[in-house]
Amino acid sequence: xxxxxxxxxxxxxxxxxxxxxxxxxxxxxxxxxxxxxxxxxxxxxxxxxxxxxxxxxxxxxxxxxxxxxxxxxxxxxxxxxxxxxxxxxxxxxxxxxxxxxxxxxxxxxxxxxxxxxxxxxxxxxxxxxxxxxxxxxxxxxxxxxxxxxxxxxxxxxxxxxxxxxxxxxxxxxxxxxxxxxxxxxxxxxxxxxxxxxxxxxxxxxxxxxxxxxxxxxxxxxxxxxxxxxxxxxxxxxxxxxxxxxxxxxxxxxxxxxxxxxxxxxxxxxxxxxxxxxxxxxxxxxxxxxxxxxxxxxxxxxxxxxxxxxxxxxxxxxxxxxxxxxxxxxxxx
Length: 332
Prior knowledge:
The chain is mostly helical. Mean pLDDT is 89; it is low at 1-17. The protein starts with a helix and ends with a helix. It has a single domain (20-34, 42-331), classed as ABC transporter involved in vitamin B12 uptake, BtuC. A two-stranded antiparallel ribbon has the order 1-2. The longest helix is centred in the C-terminal third of the chain and has 27 residues, at 224-250. Helix content is 76%, strand content 1%.
């Protein structure tokens, strides 16, 4: 009886379900907000909270894409430059070609999905390690963004409604006094869709299965290569959404932007409890991790911490998060 009780105790259930890590991450978020609010009265101002949410919308969407890939046991270092490339493609379609806004949106998302599919094919069919395949894709997309744009930003001044994608407020127009940017709304819609896919669809089940034991899944007769390619394509399409969000926020496609975003995204994923070895992770945890990163960087800026030290802090967080993941796996 004691053994059974110990197995079903609340503490054991929390650790087994992964809720323990999410609660820890959420508690860390609350502590950070309290510390920064005490350090600076400007931190909890409405404008600053909205700025934090706006920053989280881009990094959060990228982190969702990275979560899907990392759960399979892979990694995608190209999410940042893919975001930029999709923004550049949207700029070409909307500004250079003068096409309607819906076509630009479709082009950005389809481009992301295609690039993700190519990365998945390199990994699944050609057996190139995910780190190398996506590192190569990162450099290719960085170069292609500069080539296509002529190394110059592409502005969306002649595309009515484009800035509204991220900076407008549908909620604010429906509920006066609640100016939540559309970018934040899109983040939570993408998060809800990704959580549904992971928890309720065949693609989600195979996503976890590939990360847990890919060889066993393959021996059971499942087309693991096809499912892996589909997951990378889905993650690429989500990066296309992030590209639209950041281009809308800046009202331009900046071809030199993007590299480095993958580190913030991966940090958010690991902080949120997704295991780098694959087979475990949640979208809710990733969103909490993305909020932690945004709050931390925003708070450091408010406290006038130099940019180089902000980078040091980000790198340190990644190391600590990965080490914590290793400790969790050893205990498991």
